[in-house]
Inverse folding.
């Protein structure tokens, strides 16, 4: 079996170790004998998004979001085609924001989003920036578990009709908010950097399963040893939820 990942704007949209997510996907596939091919896509590069099983877009500061958004919007048809064919999507922070209606920065400048979902994002003032470690609880593809990460965003994302998770500690979509991220059957969009997947192997495996299921029918993955990952997670959960 094989999965093909398209890693969008990898030199620009990579904050707080988002690239670690790619390493984890590769390693977890490798351990199970699943071929994992990672391709990158830069501004102006001709790529058919539907050729891939997983679309990964990391976070970026306002500057990088401004640099990539017009290129992203030109790919709207190609991305929509991939979405309609059950491609898995993992979107972090700035990437999450760009799949909504728009992002309005602190100076009032508007960066258009792809408009696939109803949510929109407007920047808070400096005193209400959402920064720090975060713990949430999600029910993802039938399983309920806690997830740990790190967030750092001014953007306050509103009108999210299907959040990824309920906030246990931290902010999430808005300052001192109740919910975090957006999720449907194929798209996981979250403010959780950290990076997300090394600290949360169960999320990594759900993403791999989603990607595999674009072309194969796979119900579960061979289990692998996650003792170290789980220990690291437990330390964070204990610290945050004490
Ligand atoms: N510029 C966006 C914000 O501050 C996204 C930041 C990020 O990707 N961490 O809301």
């Amino acid at each position: 079996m094989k999965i093909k990942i398209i890693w969008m704007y990898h030199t620009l949209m990579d904050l707080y170790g988002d690239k670690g997510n790619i390493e984890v996907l590769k390693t977890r596939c490798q351990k199970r004998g699943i071929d994992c091919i990672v391709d990158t896509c830069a501004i102006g590069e001709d790529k058919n998004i539907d050729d891939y099983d997983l679309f990964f877009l990391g976070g970026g500061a306002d500057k990088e979001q401004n640099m990539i958004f017009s290129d992203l919007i030109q790919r709207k048809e190609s991305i929509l085609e991939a979405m309609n064919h059950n491609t898995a999507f993992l979107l972090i922070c700035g990437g999450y924001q760009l799949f909504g209606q728009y992002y309005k920065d602190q100076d009032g400048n508007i960066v258009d989003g792809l408009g696939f979902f109803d949510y929109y994002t407007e920047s808070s003032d400096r005193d209400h920036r959402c920064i720090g470690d975060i713990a949430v609880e999600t029910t993802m593809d039938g399983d309920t578990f806690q997830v740990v990460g790190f967030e750092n965003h001014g953007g306050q994302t509103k009108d999210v009709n299907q959040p990824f998770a309920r906030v246990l500690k931290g902010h999430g979509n808005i300052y001192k908010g109740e919910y975090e991220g957006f999720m449907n059957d194929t798209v996981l969009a979250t403010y959780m950097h950290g990076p997300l997947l090394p600290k949360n192997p169960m999320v990594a495996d759900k993403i791999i399963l989603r990607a595999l299921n674009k072309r194969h029918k796979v119900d579960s993955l061979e289990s692998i040893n996650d003792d170290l990952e789980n220990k690291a997670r437990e330390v964070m959960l204990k610290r945050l939820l004490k």
